[in-house]
Specification:
The protein contains five helices and two strands. By secondary structure, the protein is mainly alpha-helical. The chain has a two-stranded antiparallel ribbon.
Length: about 150
């Protein structure tokens, strides 16, 4: 069975004659991609350029957000307000990582291949929103029941 070609941006399948091919580089992985229209090609090129320009900043922000619980963890043991700082140590990394993911919705090449860029970015942004909501819920629940 022949592999069905799909547009990298919108993930629509089409006959080989309707798709055009171009070489590109996404986050260090060189490969050829297909697109169905000039609009999709423009969006693919914009996404590739954004990933290549901001990937280092994204990684540093994710690392900083993930490690943001450490100061609050120290305050849990050093102050009598351990409930508040426990809530903050739990929620602040979730909120910060969610904000970074919303700002930089970068996904893996496998996700792009499976869903296309448009749906992958939408799923990443919704995941970021979910992380922010769960961080706020963690603060509220820990402060109420803690």
């Amino acid at each position: 069975m022949a592999k069905q070609l799909r547009c990298l941006y919108c993930n629509t399948s089409a006959e080989k004659s309707l798709l055009r091919q171009e070489a590109g580089k996404i986050a260090g992985f060189s490969h050829k991609f297909y697109y169905c229209s000039d609009g999709c090609q423009h969006e693919i090129v914009n996404y590739i350029q954004k990933v290549n320009d901001a990937s280092n900043q994204f990684l540093l922000l994710i690392l900083g957000a993930a490690l943001s619980f450490l100061p609050f963890l120290l305050l849990v043991f050093l102050t009598p307000y351990h409930t508040v700082f426990t809530a903050l140590a739990t929620a602040i990394p979730l909120i910060l990582v969610g904000l970074v993911i919303i700002r930089y919705p970068f996904v893996t090449p496998e996700t792009i291949k499976f869903w296309g860029i448009r749906k992958s970015v939408t799923v990443a942004k919704r995941t970021g929103i979910g992380m922010i909501i769960s961080g706020v819920a963690a603060i509220v629940l820990i402060c109420i029941f803690g």
